[in-house]
DNA sequence: AATGAATGAGGTTTCATTCAT
DNA sequence: CATGAATGAAACCTCATTCAT
């Protein structure tokens, strides 16, 4: 995933940017080609179809997200600290990569999403779920279907990031902590 | 809003259904016309363009949601009871009207959404915000920008409903209560 | 022709005005209806089709032109004076009724024109031709097919009027006389 | 202008022919495509829109006319001879290229024309005007706004050609000379 | 006589995709 | 590998016309 042909990467990045700005509708292949400085036909060397391109873009975004989050993880933390760090670093990733956030949200709310393999579509939640199950083994968290809990947590991250990106609120250190605390209090045993 | 010409309503409902199933892309005007049993041109009697149709559909969904929620409200409840009732009844509305849920989520994550007036786009959150401000006057809720809190609450409702509709979890009375409790614990002063 | 039903006249006049501003293309029946303050269906009480409306409009314009020109004719003039008067008064009619001028020119250069009866299409030239034949009987005019001469004269009138209406030149008394003289010198025996 | 891509030229020529036969109305892009033996979409490779196509067609006609007229010019002629030659060769060009004549006349009487740049729209008259100004320097022509005189001359050429093409008169050598003489007598000092 | 909602054929244009170079 | 002219199905939309009221 790190050694993408230069042109392939240019195509992915251009598409990501254009979809952020114009949505799926407003992103014809001809425009992707122009923005990526390649010929229209070249795109079809790397992707079978527009659908394929978009599906791969979703993988590409998940990969970028994963890579970013891993950088922040450390071992010497207790469970709560670890939760705060994860929540905040994910949220900051979306804020620093708005085109990823907008693309993912459009994608998961489109007819593309149900066509992903489960393994693929649930990967981000799964990582959170493993974390939850670790918490459960220590009896820290409240009783709840871990899958549902993971979904709620993931949504809280994305929602906060989008609110910031849409300019509806401004998130600073203070607010990140408030939000992480808020979500923490919603999942822990009181 | 209650006396929509019969054909106009048929067009709105058909579009809603089709977008749920096929997304914006997969919903050409010709298909809307066929599904609504009107001629293609008739749509343009009621809506200036496809864009207009979709924008009006958003208003229409907000209206339907509002009307549904109001049915459940009662006066003789304390603040927490009222919160639970509201959270659960909204969530159930989305579950009982999946086409509304799917449409709204597609819409707010599309380039259409930023083109709505603020007044229009923030109406659902505003209603929640007023509720929050009432809570604040009683000193019940934790310190936090009410706008942000409203956004987080609204998102939790939609997220839970979608998880259910996508078949990822199954929400029953038990789970509704758990979820409402979870969100309640995240906003109240501990 | 003088007792046109009020609505019929409103339709004709609206069409004339709209075609001047927007051309045939830019003049849909719905717009004619709105401008004339009648319902779309009403137009079809008075005219079989849009084509019929346009054909009748041509007659209507010829009638208006004829009526205007006749007002100016007097008996006690020699041939040349009469020519000048006719040339100038026709030219002024077009300038004072630009919508007629623009419509006629569009009409005669459209596929409608060849579908007119000869009698109809040549009426304006015929009147000029009778005048020419009178001149010929007095041996005043140069040898030339009277039909061709009539066409050339008629065209000179319209051309001058359009140049004025398009703002390319400004015609005042002086210029009218120059022009009439110019055309007169082109048809008389030198 | 001489090395137009083969397909582009086919599109222009087909459009020209079709507009002659059916007018602007009766010339849908689909028919242009079929007649030019290209796909509908191909037209939009070369022209932004139907409007653009028609505007470019006007330039193309002016270019063809210009090229044709230049072939006939010679140096060793006095002013009057030169005038006759120019008048007649232009008139014959229109007669030999009726689709150009019909297109130009439709175009200049349509809402397209006012949208041309002045430079563009007055080019044919300008060339005549320069000729007139040369005549004025020799004191040969009568006193008159050269612009107006140019317009009248240009119109006489087109009018004669159209009368012939419409079958209203038949122009042969004899008549060309008569007409050129007639116009010459209308502009020269008597 | 008059209305205007409704029709649907057909117009212009877009765009994912192909293929000869 | 890469190009981009060419394709043509299908999208959005218009508008002359009809007909129940």
Automatic annotation (TrEMBL), chains A, B, C, D:
InterPro entries: BscR_C (IPR032551), Homeodomain-like_sf (IPR009057), HTH-type_TetR-like_transc_reg (IPR050109), HTH_TetR (IPR001647), Tet_transcr_reg_TetR-rel_C_sf (IPR036271). It comes from the Bacteria. Residues 28-47 bind DNA. Keywords: DNA-binding. The keyword Ribosomal protein does not apply. Residues 5-65 form the HTH tetR-type domain. This is TetR/AcrR family transcriptional regulator. The lineage of its organism: Bacteria, Pseudomonadati, Bacteroidota, Cytophagia, Cytophagales.
């Amino acid at each position: 995933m790190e050694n993408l042909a230069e042109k392939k990467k240019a195509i992915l990045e251009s598409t990501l940017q254009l979809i952020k700005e114009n949505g799926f509708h407003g992103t014809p292949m001809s425009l992707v080609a122009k923005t990526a400085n390649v010929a229209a036909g070249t795109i079809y060397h790397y992707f079978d179809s527009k659908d394929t391109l978009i599906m791969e873009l979703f993988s590409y975004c998940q990969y970028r997200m994963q890579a970013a989050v891993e950088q922040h993880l450390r071992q010497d933390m207790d469970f709560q600290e670890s939760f705060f760090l994860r929540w905040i670093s994910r949220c900051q990733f979306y804020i620093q990569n708005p085109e990823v956030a907008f693309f993912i949200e459009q994608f998961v709310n489109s007819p593309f999403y149900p066509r992903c393999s489960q393994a693929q579509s649930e990967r981000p939640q799964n990582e959170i779920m493993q974390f939850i199950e670790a918490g459960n083994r220590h009896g820290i968290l409240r009783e709840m279907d871990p899958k549902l809990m993971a979904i709620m947590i993931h949504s809280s991250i994305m929602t906060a990031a989008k609110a910031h990106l849409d300019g509806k609120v401004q998130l600073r250190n203070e607010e990140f902590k408030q939000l992480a605390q808020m979500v923490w209090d919603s999942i822990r045993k009181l």
